Amino acid sequence: MRNPAPDAPSAAVKTTASGAQIVIHDEASANATGRHWSDIVGCIAFLGVAAWDVWIAPAVSLALIPVFAYEVAAGLAFLGRRRARASVRGLGPRIAAYGATFMVPLFLAFAAAREPSWLTPVTRTFPAVAHLAVPTANILILAGACLSAWGLWYLRYSISLEPAARGLVTKGPYAIARHPLYLAYVLSYAGLAVQHPTIQVAILIAVWFAMTWTRIRYEEGVLMAVFPDYSAYRGRVGALGPRLRKSTHESIGY
């Protein structure tokens, strides 16, 4: 069944303070049944990334296998998600979403094939602390995988690749952090950086985090445009962890 185009006459368009255009879909479109083409694309994209991770795992780290399991589950979740009630239009949101999703696997594949020195393991760079660094890295990656599985279970009907509002989830891990899936990636990629402490990996993680933070801002813009309760939720729960204070600007999770 075909979905009405996002810019159909029945869709309302709002412009945020940052200049992003949010398309509020009409009730019929939001409640339509059947699969949208983006559900299939999202499923294929995540299953493709999962297959890629398995391919590069022996050259990078077998600890990426838990990440693979999450990506398979995320891909399948696209086939059962709700229709979008609102989405963000523009190149910026797409660059942030696709860049944050695919840049790390692409980098790892390129480095493993062409520039293995970029992935020099900690056992060679800092052998004196490798006996501590390796298990620490594995714990971080495993913790990220467990958190992502927990978060995905609660988000399974509202998962999106591009910023969109499908449903407001505030329970489970979402009562601790507004974006537990991104926190899970932070843990996993921190583990990766500990395993491969090179300048190239450090730059990769820094760029990925900046892109993910931009992605968060786009996602929260569309959620606030659709769900009036999101502002209050945002005030009491940090983006990537519990708030230390009630003030919006004085918390580790902002």
Quick description:
This protein has 254 residues and is mostly helical. 57% of the residues lie in helices and 6% in strands. The protein is globular and about 60 Å long.
Unreliable stretches (pLDDT < 50, length at least 5) are 1-9, 247-253
Number of helices: 9
Tally of extended strands?
A: 4
What is the class in the CATH system?
Mainly Alpha
Category from helices, strands and their pairing: mainly alpha
**What's the SSE pattern?**
EEHHHEHHHEHHH
CATH topology description: Four Helix Bundle (Hemerythrin (Met), subunit A)
Please give the oligomerization state of what you see. single chain
Going by CATH, the architecture would be Up-down Bundle
Portion of residues within helices:
55-70%
- How much of the sequence lies in strands comes to 5-15%
The whole-angstrom Rg is: 19 Å
Count of discrete domains? 1
Average pLDDT figure: 81
Query: Widest sheet: strand order?
Result: 1-2-3-4
Given the C-alpha coordinates, what overall shape results?
globular
Distance between the termini: 40 Å
* Largest sheet report: 4 strands, antiparallel
Question: How does the SSE layout of this entry go?
Answer:
Layout: E1 12-15, E2 21-24, H1 27-30, H2 37-60, H3 65-77, E3 86-89, H4 91-114, H5 122-125, H6 130-155, E4 164-165, H7 180-195, H8 199-226, H9 230-236
Antiparallel strand pairs: 1-2, 2-3, 3-4
Tell me about this structure.
This protein starts with 11 loop residues before the first strand and ends in an 18-residue tail after the last helix. The protein has a single domain (12-236), classed as Up-down Bundle (Four Helix Bundle (Hemerythrin (Met), subunit A)), CATH 1.20.120. The chain is globular. Helix 2 runs antiparallel to helix 3 (65-77), helix 2 (37-60) packs parallel to helix 4 (91-114) and helix 4 runs antiparallel to helix 8 (199-226). A 4-stranded antiparallel sheet has the order 1-2-3-4. The chain contains 9 helices and 4 strands; from the N terminus they run E-E-H-H-H-E-H-H-H-E-H-H-H. 57% of the residues lie in helices and 6% in strands. A hairpin with a 5-residue loop joins strand 1 (12-15) and strand 2 (21-24). It is mainly alpha-helical and 254 residues long.
